[in-house]
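Entry 14. Ran structure prediction on the chain below.
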Amino acid sequence: MDRRQHRRAGATVVAVGMTVGLGVCATGCVGSGAAAEDARGQADPVGVLHRAADVLRDAGSSRAGTSMEMATGGTRVTIRGKGVYDYRRQLGQLTVVLPEDPAGTTEHRPITELLAPGALFMKNRGAGVPADKWVRVETATLTDGNLVTGGATDPYAAAELLRGARTATYVGRTEVGGTAVRHYRGTADLAAAARSASIGNRAALKSAAKGFATARVPFDAYLDDQGRIRKLRQRFSFVNGTRKATVDVASTTLLYGFGAPVHVTLPRPEDIYAGRIAENEPDS
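Output, structure tokens:
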């Protein structure tokens, strides 16, 4: 082989090598969209969580399931809810079911809750309120910012709490309700979340930062490949004003059925109970 043939052969080998290399990289280096998203999630988990509320707003709406577990001393109760939420208007409706009395004989009527920026409306609240009337509570006046009082955490407020994520780690991929998700674990700061929250939730989160036993909120967040929250578990701690005992609360929010229609009509002024309603911890 003369020198020119040798150069041509060498160039051919290099070209083949580049082609093979590019082919391997196209199938193995970049990987699937989910793998690329995993890489971003691992590189900046705090940034991913800070954007989670914005992703929900872009998604528009969803169905929601809630569960609130409260433990004080040797007593543990669970309150469950189900409904829909509009993230753009920050309006939602939940039907909340209270636990049985210790004797198991008293049946509670489900409470209908309407969630709105800065306000919580409750029907069938009991405590002397007429059955056909709504109770309206300003969330900024509650020491927990309505993260606990209603027996369910407002889904958008729960998402905005993640704006205060200080530390977070990417745990790995798993599934929630048959949907592939990425699991993050970390701690959020209520005061930091309040500073970055929307106008509708800012005052309530600021109140919670002052009212809880600690402003640090441990959480586990599960996001799908579009960055939408599918499951969010947050743990709060507050001091019961009556018994001066610390109450630990684990609030779990499940989001699914994105794009679901949401029709929320807020009560008319004449349908709102005018009597004085004392602030209470969730029924237990």
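The chain has seven helices and eleven strands. Will compare against last week's run tomorrow.
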